[in-house]
Protein 1
Amino acid sequence: MRSDAQGIPRHIGIIMDGNGRWAQRRLLPRSAGHRAGVKNITPVVTVALEYGVQCVTLYAFSTENKNRAKDEVDALIDLIRKRLKPMTRELIARGARVAFSGDSSYFPQDVRDIMEEIVAENTDTTAQVVNIALDYGGREEILRAAREAAKDGEITAETFESKLYTAGLPELDMIVRTGGEKRLSNFLLYQAAYSELFFTDTLWPDFNGEELIALLNEFSKRTRRFGK
Ligand code: IPE
Ligand code: IPE
Ligand code: MG
């Protein structure tokens, strides 16, 4: 199994931040930044998959992002409606399996149908995973898992983790946040316990495979002690 033993992270989480500022700097509407951001996903993820990463989780829309101006939320939902299927088709063609993390009930039925179709279409459990976090919040995930695990009786690490959206995915070895902010913004809070954190000022639409490879090199040089 490919693993962190060779200095390759098993699972990378990417906080794709900075679309709005990318657009503002070009005097474009924020929605143009989101469009540029979506275009950037496949090239960057392809580099991660070629490098041998088993799973990439992309933070695409947080539970808190719903509180943005209605225009922007509508534009984001429309972008998901139009681009999710073509984008995932491309990723699946590159050998990946696409999964989702989050509470999709917020999205309109047609968008949920698209998500369900995508999940039903790719069943290759041996493939590398591209996990898209949509309407995802770490606190919501933890509360939900606790409630679900409590229904089954005693809560152990195993029963609890089996109720997380990331159940079955490898350890989150690495988190990359673009856009300059140094915070997790409710991303994979439980899973981030021993993740190596990387922050870059590059805005997400400008981030590329070359920069990712540089961060992966840095990852391979870090000493992970896990408290020992
Ligand atoms: C990240 O870019 C994308 C989403 C949150 C959907 P932002 O929209 O947060 O961009 P900035 O941080 O305002 O530049
Ligand atoms: C985090 O970015 C969420 C995504 C990238 C989807 P935000 O822009 O929402 O985070 P804050 O508001 O700066 O913490
Ligand atoms: Mg932001």
Protein 2
Amino acid sequence: MKINTAKFVISNTDVKKCPQEKLPEYAFIGRSNVGKSSLINMLTNHGSLAKISNKPGKTQLINHFIINNNWFLVDLPGYGYAKVSKKQRSKFQDIIFDYFNKRLHLVNTFVLIDVRHEPQKIDLEFMQFLGENGIPFSIIFTKADKLAKTKVVKNVKNYTNEMLKIWETMPKYFISSSVDKTGKKEILDYISEINQTLIK
Ligand code: GTP
Ligand code: MG
């Protein structure tokens, strides 16, 4: 898929205020610092798309972007921030849960995982939540350029083994780097393929 246009639409904390157009929606989520903004900018050929919504001083959680005027890309907040209070964290969670429960045109969620790290409980639990709620998801392993290729393969294999303790099969996954654009074509083609199947 070629990205011709990528525009910021709205940023808010209230799911009711999200765009109402019946367009397929793809959400991106992961822990803070996993490389979400970089990935979104890499996918959309945009230097700073994902940062446009970062209005300082405001808790902006759900960020909608419209791509090629025919699908929404959604930048969701990182879950499991270590630095916020318990109360604040549970507010984040409520909003995220509300988002997943109410966005009827959500087609797929991309869960970002830093390929350098051992499987983390919080990511595994989050994917379990998606599974239990019947929300389709794929994994994007980020920052692949930071490791030797053999180490990437080894870590992905390790992650797969961990997932298979919970899941019958490994979900679809991608390996990416925002630095050398690894995975860009595969991820965009995957979205494009799904979009094709949705055209009536
Ligand atoms: P928050 O919005 O703060 O939660 O972070 P984020 O998940 O949006 O991550 P962001 O894209 O801001 O990247 C975090 C840091 O990782 C930055 O210093 C990026 O330059 C770096 N980074 C992100 N993706 C890559 C990548 O693919 N390769 C390398 N080498 N660095 C990356
Ligand atoms: Mg970010």
Protein 3
Amino acid sequence: MSAQPEGPTTAAEVPPPASCPEILTQSDHARERPAQAVHGAAFLAAPQPMLLADRNGLIVGANTAALTLLRGEGSEPLVGLIAAELLDLASDPRTWDAYREVLRGRQARLGRTRRLKHAAGHSVWVRITVSPVPGADVVLLSLSDIDAHRDLQAQLRHLRMHDPVTRLPNRALFFERLACALEAGAYEGTGATGRVGLCYLDLDGFKAVNDTLGHHVGDRLLAAVAERLTHCAQLAHHATGTPLVARLGGDEFALLVEDSTGTEQLSDLAEAVLGALREPFDLSGQHLVVSASIGVVERQVAGTSTTGLMQAADTTLYWAKADGKARWTLFDPERNARRMTRQVLSAGLRPAVERGEFVLEYQPLVRLEDGGLRGVEALVRWRHPRFGLLTPNRFIGLAEEDGSIVQLGRWVLETACRQAREWQLAHPGVPPVFVSVNVAVRQVWDSDLVADVARILDETQLAPELLQLELTESAVMGSAGRPLQALRDLSDMGVRIAIDDFGTGYSNLAYLSRLPVSVLKLDGAFVRGFQDGAGAGSGAPEDPADAVIVEAMVQLAHRLGLTVTAECVETVEQADRLRRIGCDTGQGWLYSRPVAAERISVLLADR
Ligand code: C2E
Ligand code: MG
Ligand code: MG
């Protein structure tokens, strides 16, 4: 001890005399300086446990309360011990650094909560505050016993972190543990696997139990389920611990496996859970049979976030439900990518129409008799800024689902009609080609197709005879209401109606003959099985049943006044046979793939 304070004001500021033994005593020194002696006595007798340490961190003073708190009354003195060791201030680097800064006088204060081992064996929670003593070369370490406070806090925390119905850890605790697992697993070389697994479970039909038997039975069932899950988890105990079972809310539970070893471990657990839940539940006389669906995710911790993991689990659980419930399903990245792509595409559809990201290609419709070009089918493509050129099977279904097909369909109709008119004007010397436009069911139902067509024909000045609309059977069948009237109006206008993909739906020729339909487009599937077996080595052998059916259909269609177009004509043999049985028009790769409008212009110029 060197510096002596000039006029100390508080007891805490009194530095202990250098000679002081375990506790401050009234030394000769003190008698000479009465104020200091008083402060020393106050320090000694204060109910608050306090220690003094020199700049090297050695304890140079301790009062009775400190000795009692840490060692028990009348035990070995604390002076001479290293304060940081006694109070556990050196075990984590951040605290140690901060503590040394206070010792060096560079930091004003440090507060830490520590669980310390009492000499009698039990542990005590203490709040430690380290602060310098101005004008003296010591620091004061004052301690407060927060054991009682800690107990209460722990109890409150338990309440906050557990679900009262099942007594399981709740959502909050689950996410806390998950976050810890992801953080801890990120450190390598700890002997852990660096992986994490999750079974995300939802009871099938739990709502019905609640609704029919009441909430108290529902609650009892949840508690019983929780018990079985806990049992499964205990059986699944492995090297690094027991899976955490939590109730995430409602009838949703999760089993978290830290340091998992691979998907097999998780699928075994899921299987065990399904097995355990299969046994009927006896809820004081009520026999209940339940099942559950489980989404299983197992992956590396590195690169995994809580949100990412939970989203994957949620999607996988949804698949388990969609695939028929009462099962577990493993997360499948490819299936997920498809789902994500669908979502991205769906979200981008409407703006894409406005941004003009769609283009039309045209595929020739050829007279089978002489191979002459009669018309073209307009086929839409999406030039997607991220996914490149997309064919309609990627987005037409989505556009139908969200209704954007109406807007898109209108654009297709307009563009195709304008193009057909341009061709006609550019090639006055040849018979004009008609354009055939696909119309989706929803366009017939959800928009005023008739008005749209009338306006577009008027604006583009295209003759109605040069427009053909392709509808599927399902779009025109089944009702004598609006669609039918729409077909009549269109037909009255002079627009031709074709039934697309004929043969895949109802194939009800008799019914169709009563509608204002003039063309049947035979589905490609028919033509595909329709190879000429005699053709040397050309693809699949002919299926005679197909040939007979197609022939009968063509004859019947002709008798009903319809013309027939065959789709997907890929080989000369197919074309020959189709011509022989009387098909009128062909469309397919044999003649041309769908091409840009300019290619059609070239064809027209060559005629
Ligand atoms: P679709 O109306 O039956 O059109 C014929 C489909 O068969 C086209 O596929 C065409 O590229 C393909 N195709 C043509 N010849 C051959 C061939 O020889 N072999 C094979 N394997 N395929 C051939 P694409 O362009 O992918 O269109 C698929 C479907 O998307 C169309 O079937 C149609 O239902 C729909 N679609 C296309 N454009 C539109 C549109 O603007 N509006 C609506 N609502 N649907 C459209
Ligand atoms: Mg079509
Ligand atoms: Mg078709």
Protein 4
Amino acid sequence: MSKGSYVLAIDQGTTSTRAILFDEGGKATATAQVPLTQIYPAPGQVEHDADEIWRAVLQVCREVLAEAGAGNIAAVGITNQRETTVVWERATGKPLANAIVWQDRRTAPLCAALEREGWGAHVAETTGLVIDPYFSATKLAWLLANVPSLAERAASGEVCFGTIDSFLLFKLTAGRLHATDATNAARTKLFDIRSGTWDARLMDRLGVPLVMLPEVRDSQGDFGLVAEEHFGAALPIRGVAGDQQAAAYGQACFAPGMLKATYGTGCFVVANTGAEKVASATRMLSTILHQREGRRTYALEGAIFMAGATIQWLRDSLGVIATAAESEALAERADPKSGVYLVPAFQGLGAPFWDAGAKAAIVGLSRAASKADIVAAGLEAVAFQTRDLLTAMRQDMAVSGIAAAHALRVDGGMTANAWAMQRLADILGETVEVAATPETTALGAAYHAGQAVGFYGHDAALARAWAPSRVYAPKMTEAEREARYDGWLEAVSRVRSEAAP
Ligand code: ADP
């Protein structure tokens, strides 16, 4: 058994930086949080100040360690916003530009060029991804082309590239380690997830020199020690994983076929597909769920752009609710036969329709329609979109002979809404299980680090310890479920752009 009573998890997210202490039972016993400044230099551009992130990490860790004592920490785990791209000076750890955040669209023209040049098949086959500005590769290429002298300095080995985990590892170890884990590497669009190596062809096309890339390590294992100067003790860093992969780990999705969905601003569904990379026929992403002892476990991932964001729109733009939580009581008052559908294609339609030109709409309004009906339709849209996504994912999994679980583990802010979760179970026709801890992402990082030092038991023990706080079983009749879903597909067909097939 390891020394220490807690694992320290660092959760560096898009909007905040948090430190959480977890005890042996996986319970969060202390939390500190600092919000993160969003920098918008131009429309479609989003940046973070990496130095601000580092200062926040120091602050939140010191805050929770002041309560527990650094000597009481068995290991440190890191989870982070993925794809966000940092470049820093190797000699000093100083960032050489603002970090370009995953949401940033400035590299759309470069992505279009890659598409025209026919890189799509190579990207899908090696990285498991699609060509999109979302991923790090084109952001890094942009920095190399636009930050004065960066390309020359990078070629001579003076500059490090990394995602946020990598930058934090470098800072925490006082520059001793330039590394990342396989889950984060898998989101750069420079990493061959089949062989676990950087892809020379993509690096060459994008002008990325190998010397600036981090060493890729297991998600669970040795990431060196936190330099003593930071927290007064040399704490071992033993786990690193990107946020969605960490959440799946925190949800104990250890077996092939298991699924989790996180309902925040958007929704991310991740399915464990086991030891083989699964190719998707519906542009779902293939990625690495975790890597342990050199062995990779793969995942399929799909996203819904507008989940909680639809509720924000109902609140902030339409003004039909004052708080997100109010949506629950209103939905309960909605007319179940209203026939109102809200298709939240505010950013086009994502998987499996992939119609960027589609526009959002509320359809099926009658004179009797009320704001309650519209709010219910907004919540129900999240359930329909989840079904769209799961259907596509299960098809991909079936082709590879993987039996998908018929229960969905869920977490995130929207899971507080009992009406929405019941409707999700009803529209899916399967059980929805809400995680006991709202901190599944941080817990996943803690599990990785804790398992590495023997603080937590093996997978089977963690799987047994997993217990939902609430379970929703489907109550709707099959006939009603299918009728409603047909209505959704009909509503979706009405918002498709003419360009779509
Ligand atoms: P993120 O991590 O993306 O910021 P959270 O997991 O904190 O998201 O969830 C916040 C989102 O969940 C917001 O978009 C909010 O509108 C939505 N949300 C929060 N509470 C509720 C609720 N009771 N009903 C419906 N949506 C909710």
